[in-house]
């Protein structure tokens, strides 16, 4: 089943009535979110009801604090679609939307006559976050409140995952996500320097708000030709400091053209931090070591260097 709707501009545009409705920000679709989404799917299946996921983009912290996000709108929709909702509604979050009165939110939901609503225990809505669970309980036949999932005594949160990524610790981020962190973007032309030294790379066009780890990583890359193991360099390039930061991935055993095509990079392991090199020969030697290191890391995770389907 594929969702009927990917983007909904207004709450009034929700099309599915009598559904099990899951509401949340779902940035990153981490393990805490998955408990909530699993419950939505379980209830809908058990009661033979449609299911609806209502989410927002970008997160409020991006709009008001200039923070980064874990998943772009398309990345989030892709991850949420795996729960096979009847309708997937992504509302644009703006400063104007943040001023919405809580009663408007409640009235719009009532028109859909949801049989059940599933939310997290910290769910708030409306202007100044004035709406809460006490207000929401009067909308559906049944309100299910999911407790925050914890790890090491702390709630699993998108902010916590972003902190791990800022330190390049993709393994810790992945443990909280429950899946490898991903970045999807179109392959654009770079300076072609990697090809001249035997390590051609796919350079991804990504929005500046996308949270990215900095360093060199073992990755797998989904392409139109299949999935390949590889290594990725992310962030500013110390050897070429005048050039802008980027995500560039070298795919093992791959020699096709990816320009203007969308690929998805999945981060599996941190290999090393970034550093400047004295010249091309030192850089080539390090890249050869990185390739061997990445292949070992992928093999340890039962991911071979060439995963072409």
Question: What is the gist of this entry?
Answer:
With 309 residues, the chain is α/β, with parallel strands linked by helices.
Terminal CA distance: 24 Å
SS-based class: alpha/beta
CATH homology-level superfamily of the largest domain? HUPs
User: What is the level 1 CATH name of the largest domain?
Assistant: Alpha Beta
SSE succession: EHEHHEHEHEEEHHEHEEEEEH
Structure characterization notes:
The radius of gyration is 21 Å and the shape is elongated. It folds into two domains: 17-155, HUPs (Rossmann fold, 3-Layer(aba) Sandwich); 180-300, Elongation Factor Tu (Ef-tu), domain 3, CATH 2.40.30. Helix content is 28%, strand content 26%. The chain contains nine helices and 13 strands. The model has no long low-confidence stretch (mean pLDDT 90). Helix 6 packs antiparallel against helix 7 (170-177). The protein is of the alpha/beta class and 309 residues long. It has helices spanning 31-47, 60-65, 73-81, 102-111, 133-136, 158-166, 170-177, 193-196, 280-300, and strands at 20-23, 51-57, 87-92, 116-120, 142-146, 150-151, 154-155, 181-188, 202-205, 215-223, 226-235, 246-251, 262-272. The strands form three sheets. It has a six-stranded antiparallel β-barrel. A five-stranded parallel sheet has the order 3-2-1-4-5, with helices on one face. Strands 6-7 form a two-stranded antiparallel sheet.
